[in-house]
Amino acid sequence: MTDPVLxxxxxxxxxxxxxxxxxxxxxxxxxxxxxxxxxxxxxxxxAIRAAVITGNGKSFCSGLxxxxxxxxxxxxxxxxxxDLPDLFAACTKPIIGAVNGHAITGGFEIALNCDFLxxxxxxxxxxxxxxxxxxxxxxxxxxLQQAVGRRRARQMSFSCRFITAQTAYEWxxxxxxxxxxxxxxxxxxxxxxxxxxSPEMLKTIRDLIHHRDMATLxxxxxxxxxxFAAFLRNQFKGA
Length: 239
Hints:
It is a single chain. By secondary structure, the protein is of the alpha/beta class. The chain has 2 domains: about 5-195, Alpha-Beta Complex (2-enoyl-CoA Hydratase, Chain A, domain 1), CATH 3.90.226.10; about 200-239, no CATH class. Helix content is about 45%, strand content about 20%. It is built from 10 helices and 10 strands. A hairpin with a 2-residue loop joins strand 1 (about 5-10) and strand 2 (about 15-20). Helix 5 (about 140-150) packs across helix 6. The protein is globular, with a radius of gyration of 18 Å.
């Protein structure tokens, strides 16, 4: 049986590949379990400095596999109460989404939970929760509006229409659009740059950016300044 999720580590970069190309990498229980396990491996392994999520074949991820929606446990695939957004949030390493093709609904949510996205020219994005009648649960209604703004998020989620990689770039959803053959080389180049950073300070800066989601600008600014003051005190203490 083919593993629904592939996991490799090279040069301190972990690559998670969703691997059900015959189903456009649709999400079943085995794929979710594999993805959850990989996210935890990345968090635990101090040798890993950055991670990438991509898809095998023509799709990044086409969302929930509707053929198994009523027969497999997609809510709690490992039976331990873990949930996708919590595992992404708990991951201590930057995660780049390398969007190689369609990112649809639940697959789009996987992409949105990444720290940022690099897209192939072949990529496209759609939120079809309203069309298929499935309640969003992995951050679509919050993360999409954070990425593209509330009005564009409404347009995407209400109309359920696809947007191209170029439109996603123009709307601020993806950081770069590259020729399809250059997607993984470019993503690995960026991940390599990340690996040159101080792991401790990289985690601090990532946490500071995330803190802004839970605080006003004034509060987040004060939080950063307090950390800087503590940093300076520790530097003088060690001098």
